[in-house]
Design a protein that fits this description.
Layout (H helix, E strand, L loop, with lengths): L2 E5 L2 E4 L3 E5 L4 H13 L2 E3 L8 E5 L4 E4 L3 H10 L9
Parallel strand pairs: 4-6
Antiparallel strand pairs: 1-2, 3-5, 5-6
Length: 86
Amino acid sequence: MKLVNIGFGNMVSAQRVVAIVSPDSAPVKRLGQEARERGVLIDASFGRKTRSVLVTDSGHVIWSSLPPEQVSARFQEAPETEEETP
């Protein structure tokens, strides 16, 4: 499993992330509000301004205080780890 740091020591599974977007548009703001209402919003911004929104294949929405470009760069540079076999 490939884990990527999205700020403040918070990690997400790279295989589960579908999109990394800026929170400035009305549809993305609406997506965050709907996620909050459904109970699938994860606020990993630690109270700072949300600068990127990550959308997962499970429908979870994750807020990060890092800009989308920096989060994307971390996804590209994170090393692949071997799958553990039982």
